[in-house]
Specification:
alpha/beta, Rossmann fold, 2 domains, 5-stranded parallel sheet, 11 helices, about 15% strand
């Protein structure tokens, strides 16, 4: 009977038709479980990072499942795919999960959810954090529509706060560099919000876009040329990838730039401070998404 509860917890997170399809596929064989072994639900997990660097989030997700009474390999099967920082791999990895006919796919952030949504329009996608609205994945939090639901953050709303916190920590700061990703859909909205905050704080921004890790040192050279005094690292920047956070913080330390990030893991990797949701908490909550159909804003 636990299998039935799992489908209700994870698949009921979607809307209308998807609820009907998922329950129709999964509950019919469960009704005869006394006579035959039911199909064990398969949960797809897709992350842009590596298994090693994503271990904390994975452990939190498993804890969330265990708290609901599910055991990996017994009452559920996890099909995990890790892109190891190579975003170009995401479409193929998402396609693999679709071919495996998993019942639901948990996406590590908005970029992962975008690749997954392009691979399937019917398998429920549970977002474990990320700016789903800013990324254009859903029209709004209350009515996400489509097959995407989960736990959403809003990087644009946070971006002004990052500047405020930097100014509080280093009151003399007047020139702040902002490291972003050119292809990230949240870059534009976040920069616009930061410009508003910058005017109020009398801070001048220097926006720098980095597409590849090899461009990081050049970006820091540009910061030095423009006499930047602090650094904000936006979500979606290549510097945010767990593989490159420590290197980015090393470059910032050499340039004597205090940094602020969204992710607390960046502080463990040498950053000055972070302000944002705890990713492990989001993954834990993704295991037991409420059956409201709406995405939850964090």
């Amino acid at each position: 009977m636990k299998s039935r509860a799992l489908i209700a917890t994870l698949v009921l997170s979607t809307l209308g038709l998807f609820i009907t399809l998922a329950l129709g596929l999964c509950l019919v064989p469960l009704a005869a479980e006394a006579q035959a072994s039911p199909q064990v639900p398969r949960i797809g997990v897709l992350s842009w990072t590596t298994l090693t660097t994503g271990a904390r989030n994975r452990d939190a997700f498993l804890q969330g499942l265990h708290a609901l009474g599910y055991v990996e390999g017994q009452t559920i099967v996890l099909e995990e795919r890790w892109a190891e920082g190579e975003l170009e791999r995401l479409p193929d990895l998402a396609a693999e999960l679709v071919q495996l006919q998993v019942h639901v796919i948990v996406a590590g952030n908005a970029t992962v959810a975008r690749a997954t949504s392009q691979a399937t329009g019917h398998i429920p996608i549970v977002l474990a954090g990320g700016d789903a609205v800013g990324a254009g994945l859903i029209p709004n939090i209350a009515r996400p529509d489509g097959n995407i639901t989960g736990l959403a953050t809003n990087a644009a709303e946070l971006s002004g706060k990052w500047l405020e916190l930097l100014k509080e920590a280093v009151p003399a700061v007047s020139r702040v560099a902002v490291l972003s990703g050119p292809e990230s859909p949240i870059t534009g909205p976040a920069l616009r919000e930061m410009q508003v905050a910058a005017l109020a704080l009398r801070v001048q921004l220097q926006a720098l876009s980095v597409r590849d890790p090899s461009e990081l040192e050049g970006a820091f050279a540009a910061m030095s040329t423009e006499h930047a005094e602090a650094l904000v690292v936006l979500p979606g920047s290549v510097a945010n990838f767990s593989l490159y956070r420590a290197h980015t913080n090393e470059l910032a330390a050499r340039s004597r730039l205090p940094t602020i990030w969204e992710s607390r893991e960046a502080v463990a990797d040498g950053g000055l401070m972070a302000y944002g949701p705890d990713s492990a908490s989001l993954w834990r909550r993704a295991a037991g998404r409420p059956s409201s159909g709406a995405a939850h804003k964090i």
